[in-house]
Structure formats: structure tokens, C-alpha cells
Specification:
With 510 residues, the protein is mainly α. 66% of the residues lie in helices and 1% in strands. Helix 6 packs antiparallel against helix 7 and helix 12 packs antiparallel against helix 14.
């Protein structure tokens, strides 16, 4: 923290807001990011009201969305933005010229290869720290979009409808995108900085003004047996945007008051490790990890609000008959904070990245689905050793959690009191295990990670391995449920993706 004045204010982006950065005490790259997102919020309202599909044709909307996105990239990252533009243009050549039977393979290799090369560069250039703006975040999001589109294009033009699962069939693409459509999808100002990744068809429907009407058509057609949706005006996203902005304000206040007072690196401070008792170290680790989440809540929720303000993200009607704007939401805060299992935590964190891993890898791998999804998630995140400590630790923890649930849960279902006690116990165990597993993601390097695990006596590793071995089933079930097996297997592979946004600096908020 004491070196903040020397290094943190460096950025490759524009320095117009340097006075505000110095006054507020925040790194300039964070100030630039926040300024762009707030401008994007106001631009989104303007985009929905004055460049609506009723007033503007799709070409104009595509062009404006793309130009604003490129301006944001240059403002935040300066010349580093060329990395993002280059990989997008290179993959457009693949999509437009390559053999459709292999377009998904070429796009995956090109996008992931370029991302990995940049990630390796970050380790050598920044030496486990972020001394300048981290451009890898937008590059990671663009990689998801590039590969998602390529796989959906392959589905639509190289496979028969009956060969595709229903989810893939609905999202398949039957026509190669034009250059402006491709650029707009990948570089639009709504998602260029922090995502999330959304499906190409959904985005094109949004640009062409069919995003809301198609979902209303489905709802009213199903409920009434006829299409009366055209009599209902498009719902306003204002309430959803306001609610999400209130969440952002709460997260920002929490960060300023609590998070900054609980630095992650204190967990591996030599004096703290040598003199604090184990319970104190465990308690601090728990609360410092809990306090680190609101900066991710803030960034993802603000991005969701920006999309909604533009009229994008309409999901349909929820079970209470209310309009839902959570189509591309990236997290469920209540589900995360009340999670009583690893699976519940994973299902509610970085949701769109989980969908991407499932769509492009897990659902398509003919063999070794878990291992291949695990490898893809690891490569997508980068090459910092802390990531791999987390990935490896997650495997026995997930196996132990699954075995314990299978062995003990049924004993606590006899009464509400027992069930409540079980929920409280599993909540505490889940949150402590998440804390222990996630810590290397924030420490990044080998030495502090080993220091932390030694200070914790590797207790989660030991307990997990013992539980996984001792509670393993004696006999396999004759008829396991396929859906449960698929979900549980994916849970283990998806844990890594949910632990990282696009910024690995522990002091950054974006």
C-alpha cells in the first residue's frame, strides 16, 4: 500500500483524469474504467431512446455501438487496445473465409493461442503485479465471444437440426456475419470492458429490435394459445436498472469502508503468521475473502445495468408474472452469500463464463469432459501459478463435498430443526472451503501461496482427501441419473472460472 504513489497511477490509457485519480486516491486505470462505465450507462439510455430500432436502422446501431466500444478501449488501454482489435479482425477473416467444418477449431486455436501468449507476457512484464492497465480482461471476454460465435456458426451450417441439443439448436447461426455485425458483437460499448459474453443471436435480435418482442411472443403465445404480445408495449428497464445501481452503491460503500481495511496480503505477512494464533489467522482469511467479493459484485452488476439501460437483457416473465431483466446477469449475490455447497456457489458466480465453458467444451467433448473443461478454464485464466493451486485444490474439495452430502444429508431431513442445523453447518463449511480454495487466486505467486497453506496447516487439503477416500461409495449405483452426473461433473470443472474477473491486482476494484 505504501508504494501506491510510485506505481499504481501508471496507465497506458488516457491521463485526462489523473487529477481526479490523485484526489480520490484511486489508481488512474480504475478511474478511467469507472468513468467509461458511467458514460456507457448514460449512452445506453440514449441508445435505447434515440437510436431505437423504430428510429434507426441496424447498420447505424451497429456502427455507433462499435465506435463507442473502440473509443472506450483506447481511452482505458491506449496502444494495448491493438491486441484486442487484432485478434477480432484476425478471427473475422477466419469466420468469413475458412471452411465452415473447421471454423470453430481455427477460431478456438487462434483466440486462445493469442490470449495465452498475452497472458505469458503479463507474467514477465508485470512480474505478478499490475503496474499498468490490465488489458487481458477485455481480451478474455472477446475470446469467449469469438469462440461462442464460431461454434454456433458451425452448428447452424454444418450440422443437421436433429443432431443438436435443443439449447444449441436455438442459438445456432445459419449465415456468416458481416464485418460490422462481427465487430459490433465483439466490441460493442455495452460489454467491451467487463462483459459479460452473450449469445450472437440474442445480440442481433437486440440490435434489430426483436429482443423483447420475441420473448413476449413466446410467453403470451404459450399462456393464451395465441400471439397477443403485439398489444403489450415493450417493458421499461428503468426499475431493473435502478435496483442494480443501488446494489452497486452498496458494494462501493462496502469496499470503501470494509474491503480496504482487510488487505488480502496481510494473510501472508510474516509477523501475522508468526504471532497470530490459528483461529485468528483463519478468521482473518475468512473475512478478507468475504470482503473481496463486493468489488466483483460492483463491476458485474454495473455492467448488467448498462445492458439493461440499452434495452438488452430481457429474459421474460418470472414465476410471479413480473418482467425479468436477468438474461445476461453474471451473478446472484443472494445465492452466493447463502450457498451451502460448492455447486450452489459456482452456479451463482460468473454465470456467463460457466455457460461458455459448458457450451464450447463440456457439451461437445466426446471423452474426458471434466479434464478438457478444466484445461480450457485454466488456459483462459492465464498462467499465474496461484490459479493452478486453486484448480488443483478444488478437485478434492468438490469430491469431499459431494461424498459428504451423499453420506449424511438424508439424516437431517426428518425435521425442520435438523435441516436448519444442517444448512448452517454446510454454509459455514462451504464458505471456509471457498476462502481456502480461492486465496491463491488473489496471491498469484507460488511463495505467498505456500506460506498461506503452511500457515493453515493444509487442513482443507487433508480433510478433503480423507473425506473423499473414507466416504467413497462401496458400490456404484446401477442407474445413476444422467442429469445429476453431468451437473456435478461440470461443477468441479467450472470452479476456476468463477473466481476471477479481469483484474488480478488485489487493490483494484474493477
Amino acid at each position: 500500500m505504501g508504494q501506491r504513489a510510485d506505481v499504481v497511477f501508471k496507465t497506458t490509457g488516457f491521463q485526462w483524469l489523473l487529477p481526479a485519480s490523485e484526489y480520490l486516491g484511486f489508481p488512474l486505470d480504475q478511474v478511467n474504467f469507472l468513468a467509461c462505465q458511467l458514460f456507457a450507462l448514460s449512452a445506453a439510455f440514449w441508445f435505447r431512446l434515440y437510436l431505437s430500432p423504430h428510429h434507426s436502422n441496424p447498420l447505424v446501431r451497429h456502427t455507433v455501438a462499435t465506435l463507442l466500444g473502440i473509443i472506450f478501449l483506447i481511452f482505458c488501454f491506449g496502444w494495448y487496445s491493438t491486441h484486442i482489435l487484432a485478434v477480432v479482425l484476425a478471427n473475422y477473416l477466419i469466420v468469413s473465409q475458412a471452411d465452415l467444418s473447421n471454423v470453430h477449431r481455427y477460431s478456438m486455436v487462434t483466440a486462445m493461442g493469442y490470449l495465452t501468449a498475452c497472458q505469458v507476457g503479463r507474467v514477465f512484464i508485470f512480474n505478478y503485479g499490475i503496474l499498468s492497465t490490465d488489458f487481458s480482461g477485455p481480451l478474455m471476454i472477446v475470446t469467449q465471444k469469438i469462440t461462442t460465435l464460431a461454434f454456433q456458426l458451425h452448428d447452424g451450417m454444418c450440422k443437421k437440426a436433429e443432431e443438436l441439443p435443443s439449447g444449441h439448436k436455438l442459438l445456432s447461426i445459419n449465415v456468416r456475419p458481416s464485418l460490422i455485425e462481427y465487430l459490433s458483437y465483439n466490441l460493442n460499448f455495452l460489454s467491451v470492458l467487463v462483459g459479460p459474453c452473450s449469445n450472437y443471436k440474442d445480440y442481433i435480435d437486440f440490435i434489430e429490435g426483436k429482443h423483447i418482442s420475441s420473448r413476449l411472443r413466446r410467453h403470451y403465445g404459450t399462456c393464451n394459445g395465441k400471439n397477443g404480445y403485439h398489444k403489450v408495449p415493450d417493458p421499461s428497464p428503468l426499475n431493473a436498472v435502478c435496483q442494480k445501481l443501488l446494489v452497486c452503491c452498496g458494494c462501493m460503500l462496502f469496499f470503501l469502508i470494509v474491503t480496504r481495511s482487510l488487505p488480502i496480503m496481510h494473510n501472508v505477512h510474516p509477523d501475522f503468521i508468526d504471532h497470530a494464533p490459528f483461529v485468528s489467522r483463519l478468521t482473518y482469511a475468512f473475512f478478507s475473502i468475504q470482503a473481496a467479493r463486493p468489488k466483483f459484485y460492483f463491476a458485474w452488476t454495473l455492467a448488467d445495468a448498462v445492458h439493461n439501460a440499452a434495452g438488452y437483457g430481457f429474459l421474460g416473465m418470472d414465476e410471479n408474472g413480473k418482467y425479468s431483466w436477468n438474461l445476461i446477469s453474471n451473478l446472484n449475490i443472494m445465492g452466493i452469500e447463502t450457498a451451502t455447497s460448492f455447486k450452489t456457489f459456482i452456479d451463482n458466480w460468473n454465470i456467463q463464463t460457466g455457460n461458455w465453458l459448458k457450451t464450447v467444451c463440456y457439451d461437445r467433448a466426446p471423452h474426458h469432459r471434466l479434464a478438457l473443461t478444466f484445461i480450457l478454464s485454466a488456459l483462459w485464466h492465464g498462467v499465474y501459478p496461484g490459479y493452478y493451486f486453486t484448480f488443483i485444490t478444488a478437485i478434492p474439495v468438490t469430491m469431499a463435498a459431494r461424498a459428504a452430502r451423499r453420506s449424511f444429508r438424508h439424516f437431517f431431513l426428518g425435521s425442520r430443526g435438523l435441516k436448519l442445523g444442517y444448512d448452517i453447518l454446510t454454509w459455514a463449511a462451504t464458505q471456509l472451503a471457498i476462502c481456502y480454495t480461492v486465496m491463491p487466486f488473489l496471491l498469484l505467486a507460488v511463495e505467498p501461496t505456500l506460506m498461506f497453506y503452511r500457515s493453515m496447516y493444509c487442513h482443507v487439503h487433508i480433510i478433503s482427501l480423507v473425506a473423499a477416500i473414507a466416504l467413497r461409495p462401496k458400490h456404484k449405483s446401477n442407474a445413476p441419473k444422467a442429469s445429476t452426473k453431468s451437473t456435478d461433473s461440470l461443477s468441479a470443472s467450472c470452479l476456476p472460472h468463477c473466481l476471477h474477473l479481469h483484474c488480478n491486482n488485489n487493490d483494484q476494484t474493477n
